[in-house]
Design brief:
By secondary structure, the chain is an alpha/beta fold. Helices cover about 25% and strands about 30% of the residues. The protein is built from 11 helices and 25 strands. Helix 1 runs parallel beside helix 8.
Length: about 450
């Protein structure tokens, strides 16, 4: 039986391996990865650094023994350096420098993404870190233990940057959060981002949005000075740069795979690369966007798991198709949860729609029941067809607002219209919701607003 060789052991890689073994229990499945941490939750690193996860070992979705019991062979500390697609061989090098050539019948590239390194002078000096791997997390944890800095500077206010702001605050550090765009969390609308900034400041975080970092300099006292546009200057004992990721596709290039959006590997919806017997999945590939009906780059763990499953089934002789992503995401920021799915106004216009977004703030459950919190729902639909396009939500993380985004994500999957949200039979009891769920209240508000004459159209 031919071997399925998988390069990478994170979300896509392990999902593919498990799916392939389920599809064909006789098939040899070998997974090789450059580090020593198969099937670990990289998403959990900020919670480990903040002390909420006491032991980094708890970040493992499965232990090595549990993986081995499935019949999957795992080789760690093995870096793939080249693919000879004509001979079906992968050249690898172990940590001790030993080189060998591994054969395959089918190959899956699941090399994920790598941290962006912005052009900041001084980014490579001691005390400055990136965060995208277990090794990155260990390096930061060891530095915090050894140096015990009083202040931290975080460059980049996306999901990881926001989670780190809370993590470092938990460690009793003064935190400065810097974002180049006009507001934190650029994946949501700026007005919501500015509201989130106000909340961060209430938690003691210094926020500098609209600021481009240009240099990091160390002084004789061991402090790091971060400077940027508009005479910006702040000091800290540690600096973490989390300005995004890019697909890790160097290995795919050696196989002759085509690259597309943002340099990600081009795949079809079976996760085939176009190079015979080679598949790819996860943060290194383009993602089929279900609403736009075209490729996008959406590096998300949930998407990687689904793509890996599809690739593993197909590589093992089955048939599966990736249904597509709508970009559903959520982040916890102190006691708030911020989520989004689908398209915002600008993305909708680029996709050929005529978007309208209506924002509504209501209690997340019946106000008379103790513990209710404000929940903001920004609902986006197409003016011309009424088609639901997306939503953004912001509220208390224990107020059931974060997972309400999944109502909209499910509706997007089925290409529902905004008005149809009010027909959904959603559960209700005063501690959890209202007879009309906040999502349905927002849908009602959207329908009413969409019925008004558009300022861009003749009345």
């Amino acid at each position: 039986m031919e071997r399925l060789l998988i390069i990478g052991g994170s979300d896509a890689g392990i999902s593919a391996a498990l799916a392939a073994r389920h599809q064909d229990g006789r098939r040899e499945v070998m997974m090789v990865l450059a580090d020593d941490y198969p099937n670990f939750s990289i998403c959990g690193l900020p919670f480990y650094l903040g002390g909420e996860v006491a032991d980094w070992r708890h970040l493992a979705h499965r232990t090595r023994d549990e993986i081995a019991r499935t019949g999957i062979t795992v080789r760690t500390g093995v870096r793939a350096e080249g693919i000879d697609a004509s001979r079906r061989r992968v050249e690898v090098r172990s940590l001790d420098g030993r080189r060998e050539s591994l054969s395959y019948g089918q190959l899956l590239i699941a090399t994920g993404a790598e941290s962006l390194r912005p052009p900041i002078a001084g980014i490579d000096q001691p005390g400055v870190f990136l965060l995208h791997s277990m090794e990155d997390g260990f390096a930061i944890a060891q530095y915090l233990q050894a140096v015990r800095p009083a202040a931290a500077v975080i460059i980049g206010a996306g999901y990881i940057g926001l989670e780190l702001a809370e993590a470092f605050s938990r460690q009793k550090m003064a935190v400065t959060l810097i974002e180049q765009t006009e507001a934190v969390l650029p994946t949501i609308d700026p007005d919501l981002g500015r509201r989130l900034e106000g909340y961060l400041r209430e938690q003691g975080v210094t926020v500098a949005s609209g600021t481009r970092v240009e240099a990091i300099e160390g002084d004789s006292d061991g402090l790091l000075w971060v400077s940027g546009s508009g005479d910006f200057r702040v000091q800290g004992g540690i600096v973490v740069v989390v300005t995004g990721v890019r697909p890790a596709t160097g290995l795919a290039r050696t196989a002759g795979a085509s690259l597309g959006m943002r340099g990600a590997i081009v795949v079809d919806r079976t996760m085939a690369t176009g190079v015979p017997n080679i598949w790819a999945a996860g943060d290194c590939v383009e993602t089929w966007h279900r609403l736009l009906a075209r490729p996008a780059y959406l590096p998300l763990g949930t998407t990687a798991h689904k793509q890996g499953r599809v690739a593993g089934i197909n590589a093992a002789g089955g048939h599966a198709v990736f249904a597509g992503s709508v970009g559903s995401q959520v982040v916890k920021v102190f006691d708030w949860a911020v989520s989004r799915t689908g398209l915002r106004d600008g993305e909708g216009r680029e996709g050929g729609f005529n978007p309208l977004t209506v924002t509504l703030t209501v209690p997340d459950h019946k106000a008379y029941y103790p513990g209710s919190h404000a929940l903001t729902v920004a609902l986006t639909g197409d003016r011309e067809t009424g088609l639901l396009l997306g939503a953004q939500m912001m509220g208390h993380w224990q107020g059931h607002g974060a997972k309400r985004i999944d109502i909209v994500a499910t509706a997007l999957y089925h290409r529902m219209k905004v008005a149809e949200l009010t027909d959904l039979d959603l559960s209700y009891t005063p501690p959890f919701s209202s007879p009309w769920d906040p999502v349905q209240m927002a849908a009602d508000a959207w329908v009413a607003e969409s019925a008004k004459p558009s300022a861009s159209l003749p009345v």
